């Protein structure tokens, strides 16, 4: 009762019952102190935490963005796909919630056990196929009598689209999706026990002026080996530590192989704009560098070494004599002062 808001008439009735003795105040206090019992339905066993469901939602938000890009390029029309919800329900309830005749793509995801279902609303599927066949993306529903050509076009399209799940799942598992079945009647699917818990990610899908749902059904058996990786704590700490040495090694290797310009300055000079405009072939510009002074060698525009000019195998060369020390920004200035 503490969580309810009573109307004025209910308050008056309660006070009246207490004053006339119809209701005992001590019994009310006793009811409030008793432990509240929460009903638990074993047929709807919640085997995933909210944290894990949020992680799955983030993964499939990335998948939805990849699908949006893929279908936009393939269909050349307005496509928008986004995650609508992520719920854990019994497999039987998922089968009952989808149309009797729909597009069902069943994928294996080795090395994980079990199979994943990608259920596509017929309106969305036919709008996609119409666009690929050169139409405007008109939607119509005749799933009960698909031709072999229509089945092949649809299955190939969704097989290519589901490959992007590999990229979306890369942070938790390295999977290789393989299309194993293409069905239109959910009653023919005998994947797991009806009471087995599944996670259903629903994607809002808009193709041109047609909209519908794409549902991804993932059984618990598929996710069981990677459940620890679905926690935020694991993502932020364990996995980061595991990848850190590898990332550093790759970064070091790329830096070592990077090309940088090496410049040996013979000297510098300052002239006026008028003198610059009057320069002609054969004119000589006097440098402020004496021939007995070492040259300044720059690595990527940053002074790093002192050297002297020479030849190696009849080619011009510069021999490094010393290393400049100090802050990179101050190297050129300190060199100038030391001269």
C-alpha Rg, in Å?
Answer: 36 Å
Please estimate the helix content: 25-40%
Tell me how many strands there are: 10
How many domains?
3
Largest sheet, strands/sense/barrel: 6 strands, antiparallel
Low-confidence region ranges: 327-339
The CATH superfamily of the largest domain is known as CheC-like
CATH top level class name of the largest domain = Alpha Beta
Question: In what range is the share of β-strand residues?
Answer: 15-25%
Level-2 CATH architecture of the largest domain: 3-Layer(aba) Sandwich
Number of helix segments? 11
Strand arrangement in the largest pleated sheet: 1-5-6-3-2-4
SS-based class: alpha+beta
Distance between the termini: 89 Å
Helix-strand string: HHHEHEEHHHEEEHHEHEEEH
Mean pLDDT over the residues = 80
**CATH topology annotation of the largest domain:** Chemotaxis protein chec
Shape label: elongated
What does it look like?
This protein is α+β, with helices and mostly antiparallel strands and 339 residues long. It folds into 3 domains: 8-37, no CATH class; 44-239, Chemotaxis protein chec, CATH 3.40.1550.10; 262-338, Surface presentation of antigens (SPOA), CATH 2.30.330. Helices cover 38% and strands 24% of the residues. The chain is built from 11 helices and 10 strands. Strand 5 and strand 6 (210-219) form a beta hairpin. The chain starts with 7 loop residues before the first helix and ends with a helix. The model is unreliable at 327-339 (pLDDT under 50). One of its GO terms (biological process) is bacterial-type flagellum-dependent swarming motility. Belongs to the FliM family. Keywords: Bacterial flagellum, Cell membrane, Cell projection, Chemotaxis, Cilium, Flagellar rotation, Flagellum, Membrane. One of its GO terms (molecular function) is cytoskeletal motor activity.
